[in-house]
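Good day; I would like, with your permission, to put a structural problem before you. A protein sequence and the structure tokens that stand for its backbone fold form the material at issue. I would ask you to consider whether the tokens describe a fold that such a sequence might reasonably adopt. I set the record out below, with my sincere thanks for your time.
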Amino acid sequence: MTMQATGALTPFNSPLVKLERLFESSGVELFAKLDSLQLSGSTKERTAESLITAFLESGELEPGGMVVESTSGNLGISLARQCVVRGIRFVAVVDENANKSALQIMRAYGATVDLVRDPPDGNRLAARRQRVAQLLNENPGAVTTNQYGSLRNPEAHYSSTMPEIMEAAGGELDMLFVATSTTGTILGCQKYVREHDLATKLVAVDAAGSVLFGGEAAERRLPGLGAGIIPELSLQVQPDQVLRIPEIEMVRGCRLLARREGILAGASTGAIVAALGQVLPDVPRGSRVAFLVHDSGVPYLHTVYNDQWVEENLGEVLEPADFHELEDDAAR
């Protein structure tokens, strides 16, 4: 598959590849959609393009205008790229848990990074959203893309992500695993599944410590998965199954995917790999299962793939045998 000449603005149909080695003893057909290959490095390229296009088409935003958004990393990178090629200023409101490499990438695209420090109640997401509101008041004409509530977020995945997966899978797919944060991706997939009367079951992969789907809030160190508040979009999401993954299992999942399949992915995809390890023992052999590779692992080299960071922040020393545990679980 190749990008069109207009690919500087438009997300492309990323490949769906069959994975033969990740859980080779599970007896399922396992597929990964490589949205880590989008120009900005994540599936948020689809979200950003949809959100910005909606504002430009409505006239609420014009070239030379300003976009402000609360982001933990990937959407900020995608918005920064989308804005720079359209002549729009972008301000990313982030907190201290933001991925440092992601911030460097945003700045490389010309974005302004606005850091919110130490909210009194510890709710970083709520503090970021308050800062967004303040910046909008201070900059008349500026807009926020509101990834947590805008219907253009799930629309991007209803109109592209899910139909692309189904076409590549030949119209037959038993389960789809999707990492959740704003829940826009899984909501768009859900809408497509229901409107097309598909039998595909949707599995929401969330972070331990996230409040999504009735979860209890707790400290989370890896950005991009889960939420500290309940996003408006999540109220419409009804997954067939929800799995909450501890951060150390995300790390194991990332490293297993890299060492088994040569796919370097971020923490949310590592969470999906860990979830697959839990679920596949109960999935009938011969089932067709797919998941999104939400983003590249390159911005996570100093965290997920760094032994010192893992030991200092997650309190564990990982040994090579740790990565075999997921495979053994899936083959039970």
The mean pLDDT is 92. The longest strand covers residues 89-95. The chain is about 35% helix and 15% strand.
